[in-house]
Amino acid sequence: MNSAKMAAVTVLAVVLAAALAFLYYKTDIGQFRKQVQIASYLREMKDIDTRWEAELLRLRSESGPSSITTAHLADSLRRALRGLDEEVSASRMVSYSLPELKRAFTDKAELMEKYRSVAATAKERLETALVTVPDINKDLRQALLNYPRQRDRIGAFEQSLSRVQAEVLRFNLSPDATQIGRLEATLGALRQAELPTSPALGPLLQKFLSSVDEFYKTKYQEQQLYNRLSYITAGPRLDTLTSAFHRELEDSVQEKELFRTALITYAGVLLILLSHIGARLRQSYLEVAEANAALKEANEGLEQRVEERTQALSAALTSLEESQAMLVQSEKMSSLGQMVAGVAHEINTPLAYVKNSLESVEAQLNTMGGTLNETEKLLRMLREGADEQAFGKQFAAVTTQIAELRNAHTIEELPKLIRDGQYGIGQIAEIVSNLRDFSRLDRKKVDRFNVADGLDSTLSIAKHLLKSVEVKKQYGAIPAITCSPSQLNQVFLNLITNAAQATEGRSGEIRLITRAPDPDHVEIEVADNGKGIPADALPKIFDPFFTTKDVGKGTGLGLSIAYQIVEAHGGLITVDSKPGQGTRFVVRLPVHPPADTELT
Ligand code: ADP
């Protein structure tokens, strides 16, 4: 799988997983649990508010003390508010309204506390005042008995007192500001009324008046607290929030239901997809296992085949090496053949010389031998005294033969013919000596070698090729080198033969130059003015079997062998050529071959 496909599959897997996580989050019951908790806290607060309202009613109607302790309600409120604080994240509505709601409930709790204590004080003062009234009446009845003449004053006082009592009770029922004026007016009238004579009445009246004073002020404060309480909108606020929250809850339940359906559908699709992938995986696993088994089998077969091939290859290599050696040998034989043919041709001319001379000498000697026989016959006739006619006939024949010999200058010619024969034999001897010099079969394989001598013996061997070529020698003063002379002669012969062949058909010129570029090296240059080498062939000329010559004329091995020989001597052979103008080979050799060269 390529990397782009891999990246696409990864992205797809991440998207699928993200979608699954999103749907799972959306259907998370945790959120729902929190919302249910919020609903229960809201209900608790509603309960607290209802209890407060009932408490207020009870306090207003004075129908007895509350059955709920304030501390209990405060605890419940704290708990509910803390709970809402904790779960607020589950509802947008609640989180929006909670600060206001909190303030309203805290205010209401505080006012309720105050209201409860003020209402208790007012009630206590009222009771004190109302309890004092029967004592005052009792005292008034005693004063009437003691002082009957004060009847009118006592009656007026009683009236004033009962008016105050009636106003106090009315004020207790509706304690608004307008009632305060009336109450204070009746109180003023009571204070101004003449006191009947009674020692206990003064203090009792004082107690009554101060209780009433305190009562109506406290009651009025109670009323104001009540009014403030009725302005605090904790209850309605809570109701509004509760119904909004319920709507929100309903929406959220519907949304959850929707996401739950989506999740089930999505999970189903994923399940189908996964089972499809699973099936594909299983199939590819089976295929891979099958391929592995096949591969293993093939490997085993392959090893065997590699073994067989290796054996076949090494056999082929051995036979290749053998054929290469044979080819090299055949190249040597071929050059040897050419050389032998040339040498034979060279020997042929002096040999013909010698043969002609010897044949002439033989003919002359035969003639001379015949004359000598006739002369001996004449001498025998003279000694034995033969008849004159026979003697005269013999004498004339001998005289004629001697005259013929003299006329033919046979005696003078014989030494010349012998010299000619000797010259031919000398030439043949020189050729043989050159051959020996060239092949150096009678010397050591590795020897000190005078390069110029090598070039000369090569030239003499290749003489027959150089008939129409002018050879120009420029031998510099170079040291003798350590090398395999017969191998180097082979190199020179190859270069000179190629040069001579390249100049065929034109007035050829071959330059042989030797020089020493530095004390440790010598250079031999073989240059010709032949046809040159085309640029595309130049890089291939040292390759084995590369030849441009006709079949039978070239094997393509000469330069390749020359290259190997020079390389084996730790040297280098280079070439440059201009097609149509000529070619120049330079053989660079060390004076002493490096120790690692293997000269044979
Ligand atoms: P061969 O002479 O048998 O062809 P060589 O290896 O000696 O093999 O030479 C390879 C080829 O290089 C020759 O066929 C010839 O084309 C080219 N060559 C070598 N020497 C010369 C030269 N002096 N001038 C032109 N071509 C040459």
What would you note in describing this structure?
By secondary structure, the protein is α+β, with helices and mostly antiparallel strands. It is built from 13 helices and 7 strands. The strands form 2 sheets. Strands 2-4-5-7-6 form a 5-stranded mixed sheet. A two-stranded antiparallel sheet has the order 1-3. A hairpin with a 3-residue loop joins strand 6 (572-578) and strand 7 (582-590). Helix 2 runs antiparallel to helix 8 (234-384), helix 10 (410-439) crosses helix 11 (451-461) and helix 12 runs antiparallel to helix 13 (558-568). The longest helix has 151 residues, at 234-384. The model has no long low-confidence stretch (mean pLDDT 88). The structure holds adenosine-5'-diphosphate. Adenosine-5'-diphosphate (ADP) is lined by residues 494, 498-499, 502, 528, 530-533, 541, 546-549, 554-560, 583. Adenosine-5'-diphosphate (ADP) binds at residues 494, 498-499, 502, 528, 530-533, 541, 546-549, 554-560, 583.
Layout: helices, strands, pairs:
Layout: H1 3-26, H2 29-61, H3 70-87, H4 92-146, H5 151-173, H6 177-192, H7 201-231, H8 234-384, H9 388-407, H10 410-439, E1 447-449, H11 451-461, E2 469-475, E3 481-483, H12 485-502, E4 508-518, E5 521-528, H13 558-568, E6 572-578, E7 582-590
Parallel strand pairs: 2-4
Antiparallel strand pairs: 1-3, 4-5, 5-7, 6-7
The protein binds adenosine-5'-diphosphate.
